[in-house]
Amino acid sequence: MAPFGDRRIDDSACQQIQCVLELIGQRWTGAILIVAARGARRFSEYRTMVDRVFDRLLAVRLRALEAVHLIERTVIPSTPVQIRYAPTSAGVELVTALQPLMDFAQRHVITPTAAPRSDG
Amino acid sequence: MAPFGDRRIDDSACQQIQCVLELIGQRWTGAILIVAARGARRFSEYRTMVDRVFDRLLAVRLRALEAVHLIERTVIPSTPVQIRYAPTSAGVELVTALQPLMDFAQRHVITPTAAPRSDG
DNA sequence: CTGAATCCAATAGGATACTG
DNA sequence: CAGTATCCTATTGGATTCAG
Predict the structure, then answer these.
(1) Phi-psi bin for B10: left (phi > 0), alpha (psi -120 to 50), beta?
(2) Region A72-87: what's the mean pLDDT?
(3) Whose CA is closest to B75, among B38, B42, B48?
(4) What is the average pLDDT across B34-58?
(5) Could you give phi then psi for residue B37, rounded to 5 degrees?
(6) Euclidean distance between CA atoms A26 and A61, whole angstroms
(7) Helix (H, G, I), strand (E, B) or coil at A116
(8) A93-117: per-residue pLDDT in tens?
């Protein structure tokens, strides 16, 4: 991700937030976190709510969120085994911190196609 | 936010915020917007403040932000010509909305390497 | 100074098939 | 149900060079 090292954007917070942004800015990731905060728990629930995300990517995203302790994965020994993905307290905090941004997003719709990406 | 249950995430405000997240989650983009709100104006100022960003990418990012009207580009006829990139009111609003997220980022440091990306 | 053009390597991500 | 394996294409982003 961002190899922010010695001195970049003026000290402190910017590199931290860029890391967070680059994490949840990955496709579906923010959405996954939000549905987690809304109560999604099982793999299939996430798959249903975040429509169009494929299994592979959903698994990758959940693992990424687990790796940074925003989501906790729990195996429930039943038949068949259930897996539960619940947001950690940090995960809930993050979604809460996202609220002003959600309000902004509703006031100013950003069309995906309007933003040119890298090459082209 | 609407209680979980009835709708897919795509139908709600979540798709909107995901668009915003995917935009500013691109490398350097959030940082660029933040330094813009902090007062950066000229190309070289951005280049200096967001250290390590290359000209091409900085230009791409600025154009992307301009395309969605978060930054405004103005040509000042002088010798040599000066180009000024200033945040629009929406851009300032966005950075303001980012504040809680910045606070979060300082409380919970997300280590970049801890998050696996796509294939692996 | 302010970029645009180009080339290239790495990564992200869509889609399908398969498994315990 | 809850993933993994695999394949393949598109996108990203680093680095350099060129130009008004």
Answers:
(1) alpha
(2) 94
(3) B42
(4) 92
(5) -65, -25
(6) 9
(7) coil
(8) 999 999 999 999 999 988 765 555 5
Amino acid at B28: W
Q: Nearest-CA residue of chain A relative to B28?
A: A18
Residue A84 pairs with which residues in a beta bridge? Answer: A74
Mutate to test the interface with B, among A1, A7, A8, A9 (most CBs of B within 10 A): A9
**H or E element that contains A20:** helix A13-24
B82 by DSSP, 3-state: which? strand
Q: Judge whether B76 is closer than 8 Å to chain A, CB to CB.
A: no
Give pTM, 2 decimals: 0.88
Helix (H, G, I), strand (E, B) or coil at A83: strand
Which residues of chain A from 16 to 75 reach within 8 Å of chain B, CB to CB?
Answer: 16-31, 34-35, 38-40, 48-52, 57, 60, 63-64, 67-68
Determine the distance between A96 (CA) and D9 (C1') in angstroms: 36
